[in-house]
Amino acid sequence: MVKTLSRPLLPGNRFLKFFLVFLAMSHFVSFTTNVRAENKGPAPDVKVGERLFNGLLPTGDGSKSCVSCHTMYTGDTMNWNPSALEMAKVAAEMDLATFKEHLLTPTGAMREKVHVKYQLSDEQLFHLQGYLKNLAIEGIDDKPLSINKLLIFLLLGGLMTIALVDLFFTKKISYKAIHVLIIVFGIGFQLKIVAHDLIDLGRSQDYMPDQPIKFSHKIHAGDNKIDCLYCHSNADEGKSAGIPSAGLCMNCHQVVRNGSNSGQFEIGKVVDAYENNKDIEWVRIHNLPDHVYFNHAQHVNVGNRECQECHGDVENMHIVKQENDLSMSWCLDCHKETMVDFKDNDYYKTFEALHKDLAEGVLDSIRAADIGANDCMKCHH
Amino acid sequence: MKEYWRSLEDLLPAEETEQEKKTSMLLSDDTESSKNSRRDFLKYFGFSIASAAVLAGCERPVKKAIPLLIQPEEVKPGTANYYASTFYDGAEMIPILVKVRDGRPIKIEGNDLCKMTGGAASARVQASLLNLYDESRPAAPSLDGKSIAWDEVDSKLKETLENWDANKEFVILTPSILSPSTQKLFSDFKAKYPFVVFETFDAFSYSAIREAYKASFGKAIIPLYRFDQAKLVVGFNADFLGTWLQPTAFSRQYAAARKLTEGQKDMLRHVQFESIMTLTGSNADERVPMPAADEAYYLAGLYAELAKKSGISSTSVNAPESIAKIANELFQAKGKSLVVSGTNDVAIQTLVVEINKLLQNTSKTILVDKPINLYQGNDKAYAELLTRMEDNKVGAVLFWETNPLYHAPLNGKTEEAIKNVPVRIAVQSQATETAKLCNYILPAPHFLERWDDKALVAGAYSLTQPAIRPIFKTRTPQENLMAWAGFEGSYYDLIKLYWKENIYNSSLAKGRHFETFWKVSLRDGLVIDEKVAPQAINYTGTNVNQILKKNNAAISSNDLELVLYQNVPIGDGTLANNPWLQELPEAVSRVCWDNYVSVAPAFAALRGWTQGDVIAVNGIELPVLVQPGQARNTLAIAVGYGRKNAGRVATDLGKNVYPFVQIINGARSYTLPKVEAVATGKTYELAATQSHHSMEGRALVRETTIAEYLKNPASGNEMHAKVEKLHTTLYHEHEYKGHHWGMVIDLNSCTGCNACVVACSAENNVPVVGRNEVRRSHEMHWLRLDRYYSGDSDNPEVVRQPVMCQHCDNAPCENVCPVAATNHSSEGINQMAYNRCIGTRYCNNNCPYKVRRFNWYDYTGADSIPNNRVDVAGMTLDLKRMVLNPDVTVRAKGVIEKCSFCVQRIQDRKLNAKKDGRQLRDGEIKTACQQTCPADAITFGDMNDPNSKVSKLLKDARQYGLLEELHTLPSVVYLSKVRNKDKNKTLS
């Protein structure tokens, strides 16, 4: 009961869910105070384990809490340590002795440095592993709601209600213009929030989901200067840029098994997938609506565009996010400005009249939109 | 200009029909349901609030992108691969290319390396793709209704076979097997188990042709016909452009011999004698209605006339006048003519064989030394098999993709015989009636999921290769036999070995290794070994005097006769569980989703029947369709309907008339000489697309005769020059700086086979709407084949016209769209942005061609609101949605759609050219309709390129635009039709 209510019921930041959030928050307060750490014989106390994990109970002098490295959510910064969930999945497979060994007498430079400070009794370890096992089964809750916008929305609502009440009943403020101003601005601002959210409904600029493997484009494309087309070779030939197969990863990772940041953990996942025939379920970042046709080859191969023009500085991103809003106006504006490689590609010989204009100096260049790039059916068919 | 009429209603006074009354009642305002109440208002108000809330609260789903673990070089996400394969449904065999996108076959096209079809495919080939995703296919093996593992099946049947009582037969009933490897497997299997007997059963029988050749040439063959080598074709009840033998190949030959483009000046003349109006008859230069019962008499007369001319003595027959005339013509075209009959009657087929022999056509237009392997079944042998089964001589029967219970019930004899066999096995890729009687149901893969090979004619081999992994737990029938006989390896290995040992030779492989030869053959899909010797066959002759004597006069009784025929979409009914085929309007009547009784207009008038009256023909109740051109005392019903166990779409759709079929003189007869027909007083509304898009009284189809055409190529098309003179416009003219796409349709070539319609549906995700929606004129086909009659309703002339969006330069639709959802592209395409459309339908209203289609409901599952959905054929199921083309938007409710000139194909080929850094080649872009057209009637290309084929055809004097007087400047141009006949009918 406590568990279910203390987690935000719905993900995301949509303000219409505020009731649920409030309910959740109030219950969280009332129920958590009633919970006691009880040890029922051989069953581990998950609560104690959770407190240990989160550093609410001491784990040894000068030691960091587990969660400070093995975070619950990985999206915001690149944290190279295995996440709490990944840890939990490993720990759930171990018996207590192995767990203890792994935790207290670690191998590997990074773990040795940090883990050496832990001082945990067998009982504490038992509870901790119990918590991790539980976590491995239940999974991590969705990210807590960001309620800034929602609060503003509600605050405005409250203000307007007070203004209305004062206008008709309490009449504390004599200048009615103030009421009117509050209501007009309130409604205006609320409408703006609504409109903004509605427009955003179909777009997802800055979308930066967690991926199943902490793959860093910065390390691959930036530091090691691997060409984008080495992995996304299909961008040159086909509609989709393609996500490289695990087989392609193994071209390098057959040899490179120790990452500079995450050790063997993340690379191990690729090796595991490759060797044990497991799919890697990447989360798709750039999504176009179904009624839009986009072809990479047209832009990368024919149009000679740099990947970064649409995808941003991927070589500096640890975690890739959607750089542009991918809205129609964004496409059209670019088509209006982008020059076509009119002279070198023989395909364009068909446009005889335009070639004549170019030769005679009537036109100085041909933009994509001039030869129909912005026709509806070029993308909507 | 002749007067054309589109349907019988046009000829009759404009009285409100029953249908119209119903419609007007529905449309009238004073019905209960149209009253809007306050409650309704609140309901909708509440609904909109609720949906807004749902919308605001919804999360974008997290989409996964899962790459292949090890990506084969040739498999690229988002890029289609084409695999050569072969279509064969027990009727027609056509080499094909299968378009596979991201692991899913999404389109079938004809293989253009095939000389016989030239890359064409029929409507049924196009549609057969959807049968792959049929949810009612048997999914796993079962024994007596309980599912069972393949291992268990094998061990049980192996045990059965090994402990067999040698006095009994183990019968395997197959359709005509074209596969040489399978033949080899059969003989190996028989060597292992000598009690196994292989029998052949064809869904629709052509055994009389084989019998006739056996009588005259000593060998039971069906020869290879060459319509393109003939100057005069006379057909007797043979729908060779629609369903008879190899309609796709014949259509191609026929159209090629009738082309008047590229300087060809003479064209094949075609005369058709027939009792019902077939697709072929409607294309004939002259057509003579003939009672089916008199066919033998007509042919006997023809034989006697020709014998007289050739100086051969024979029993004299007093031939009808039309026959005497055609005999003259035929005799003049000796060696360059062709007489064919589609009736499964040995006497008739014998006469046809002998007539062609008299005309010296044998080995010129009829290649008897190159027999085809289709329709090897023998009805006598089948009847004998049934007797053996009844006499307890058969211990087991295996139905290998055959369904005799449906196709030849023979008064319940088939059912009794099957029930009398202890072990009954159905090896089938589709749900069938026969499987219901079987213990074992062993699912077989669809032909797109399996390996096979075919040899249509000796020396012409083709391969079938899988384009997808089996969707269900199926196993190739051949592999069943291999498992039960304990043969090593897979069927693929067996085919390869067979090819290595029997087909491969170094001259055929051009000196290459077998492995290379195999890979090349697989890539091409077919191999033609020109050096295979023609089969030795000699004319032995047969005495036809007996037949002549028996048929020396017309049947003069007034008995009603019934003709059972295959229609173009459904054929013999094997692929009936296919929504695309069911929705495809029948080639002549334009009715879909039902079969019906066609009745001649005169007879209907006599009995007082009108369209939609339900009558009972020998107890089978079906609605009447009044069919101009049908012989007066003939009734006709299409076979292939009324399936009892076929799956969701076809089960209980229409009525089954196969029970009328009897074996007469050793062949299944599809003609009943005497039937009773009585009115039932009921009515039934047929889903007809016939009078929906009426454009009466205007010169839509223009035609002339060959003599006139040779005098003046613009004859019949004089109006074009007149209209051209009046060229003026208020609008600014479009300037096309690069391409200007255009399409030319040669009405002289189009036979109306409807293959284009299905190809278009498959390519462009055109929805299936179902019978009720078609009744409400809501059909969605982007391309329709208008059919007009002219002249006498007892024997009218027929013209056809494929009509799709005309992509007008001055498009009336574009001006009226309030949201600019439809506008003109820089390449001359009238484009339609679905996501912009708000559904006012102004464009639809303003289009003079009525080619725009409105999504009244959500038919394909594009919509998120479940109440919008109308799905009669399971087209919203995940399995069936796998057929959708991912490059074409799936339209939701409330938007207009129409032909886009296959813009996705244009874009794709343009991109290929750009990537290669070269100009587009003429003919590189083929629209889906053009690609599949067996008659090569459609040409597509760049009108800005003076050397393109389209530009050249635009200079033809026969060219005109549809409703060009409106000055819409269409980009689709028609070439007028030319008939090879004198101005007046000469034969009737």
Notes on the protein architecture:
The complex is a heterodimer of chains A (381) and B (988). With 381 residues, chain A is an all-alpha fold. Chain A has 19 helices and one strand. Chain B has four domains: 212 residues, Rossmann fold; 165 residues, Dimethylsulfoxide Reductase, domain 2 (3-Layer(aba) Sandwich); 120 residues, Beta Barrel (Barwin-like endoglucanases), CATH 2.40.40.20; 277 residues, Alpha-Beta Plaits (2-Layer Sandwich). In chain B, the strands form 13 sheets. Chain B has a seven-stranded mixed sheet with strand order 7-6-18-17-16-8-9, sandwiched between helices. In chain B, strands 30-22-27-24-26-25-31 form a seven-stranded mixed sheet. A four-stranded parallel sheet of chain B has the order 13-12-11-14. In chain B, helix 4 runs parallel beside helix 24, helix 6 packs parallel to helix 16 and helix 7 crosses helix 12. The relative contact order of chain B is 0.12. About 2% of the residues of chain B have low confidence. At the A-B interface, helix 10, helix 13, strand 1, helix 15 and helix 19 of A face helix 3, strand 2 and helix 29 of B. Strand 1 of chain A pairs antiparallel with strand 2 of chain B, so a sheet runs across the interface.
Might you state the CATH topology name of the domain at 36-138 in chain A? Cytochrome Bc1 Complex, Chain D, domain 2
Largest interface: A-B, 61 and 56 residues
**Helix share, percent of chain B:** 25-40%
Rg of chain B computed from alpha carbons, rounded to a whole number of angstroms = 29 Å
Q: Main sheet of chain A? A: none
Query: Looking at CATH, which topology of the largest domain in chain B would you report?
Result: Alpha-Beta Plaits
* Helical segment count of chain B: 31
**Annotated CATH homologous superfamily of the domain at 36-138 in chain A:** Cytochrome c-like domain
Characterize the biggest β-sheet of chain B.
7 strands, mixed
Number of strands of chain A: 1
